[in-house]
Amino acid sequence: MPAKTFQSHFESAETHFQEGRYDEAQSEYEKALALNPNSVEALIGLGCALLNKGLLGEAEERLRKATTLAPDNAHAHFYLGNVYDDVGKNELALQTIEKAIALKPDFAEAYLALGFIYYRLGNRAKVVELYETLSRLEPSLAEQLRKLIEL
Q1: Which of 102, 56, 57 is nearest to 77 (CA)?
Q2: Who contacts 90 (Cβ-Cβ below 8 Å, separation ≥6)?
Q3: What is the pLDDT of residue 150?
């Protein structure tokens, strides 16, 4: 049987990830990265699998490497910002997710994430501002912030 390629490991990892099988996804991403250690997409995928497993230090390491290799990748910054948010590094989370938005101004999920962080920090005015922006980009996601504003 021929050896599996980077692409086959990566595709397998993506399938496992989409199905919520993060252990299997992690294993396949790691196999893909053994064949191509600088694959930004595989690093992001692995970082997200680790994030979902609660392995925040490892997730941060992989996602920081992805942002170093591809400083213009909005998704790498977004997911790294999510790691910072999960470990309570609010200022770093805000800066990193705002960087993702600067790179991809229509990144609706990033506006939503910022809204939740600002809500937890008690900055209702910023939540309203983000709600208004998100309403134009993705009204269904904006509803989540509207509910926070009404609390």
Answers
A1: 102
A2: 84, 117, 120, 121
A3: 85
Could you say which DSSP state residue 5 is in? P
pLDDT of residue 2: 53
pLDDT at 1: 43
Question: Which residues of the chain have a pLDDT value below 50?
Answer: 1
Count Cβ atoms below 10 Å from residue 49 Cβ, excluding itself: 26
Q: Which two tokens stand for residue 38?
A: 């600088």
- Whether 67 contacts 38, CB under 8 Å: no
CA dist 19 to 14, 22, 51, 100, 113, Å? 9, 8, 15, 26, 23
- Taking Cα atoms as reference points, which of 97, 132, 128 lies closest to residue 113? 97
**CA nearest neighbour of 17 among 56, 57, 55, 44:** 44
Considering the entire predicted model, what is its pTM? 0.93
State the burial class of residue 64 (Cβ atoms within 10 Å of its Cβ: 0-12, 13-18, 19+). middle
Written as one string, the DSSP assignment of 9-32 is HHHHHHHHHHTT-HHHHHHHHHHH
Position 124 scores a pLDDT of: 94
